[in-house]
Amino acid sequence: MSDAVPSRLELLLFARRVVVQQAEASLVQLDRWIAEERRRDEERRRGEERRPPAPEWLVQYGLNRRNVDAVHVGDCWAAAKSGRCRPVGRELVLDALRQGVAPCVHCRPDTALGFME
Predict the structure, then answer these.
(1) Could you tell me which residues come within 8 angstroms of residue 55 by beta carbon, excluding any fewer than 6 positions away?
(2) How far is Cα 72 from Cα 103, in angstroms, rounded to an integer?
């Protein structure tokens, strides 16, 4: 067994090999993260392309799912929270307003339609 002490140059070369090995491993990990993020971005983009357009108007049904409680503009946040809304056409919203169905106080579909009682 040799008790030879490595020279300063040998120690520096060894340190360089360690640093290169760690850098290569880090680059491999970074490349994996980049590839995964690109995959997620592509998946998000495809999902947005396939999403159907938002309806223009919504009616909100009561708890019994029969009577109409309110009417909303299609992108109303309050309608999204209720979970009891269905998309409808402009004429059905106007008919509902004429019959006294309450317009949403947040999105004001009566104002958007120019509805005057």
Answers:
(1) 74, 87, 88
(2) 7
| Nearest to 101, CA basis, from 72, 79, 69 | 69
| pTM listed for this prediction | 0.58
* Phi and psi torsions of 51, nearest 5°: -65, 130
Q: Name the phi and psi angles at 22, rounded to 5.
A: -65, -40
Q: Are 68 and 60 in contact (CB under 8 A)?
A: yes
Within 1-117, residue ranges assigned H as helices are 8-50, 77-82, 90-98, 109-113
- The Cα 27–Cα 114 span in angstroms is 60
Q: Are 60 and 109 in contact (CB under 8 A)?
A: no
pLDDT per residue as tens digits for the range 78-117 = 887 777 888 999 999 999 999 999 899 999 998 888 877 6
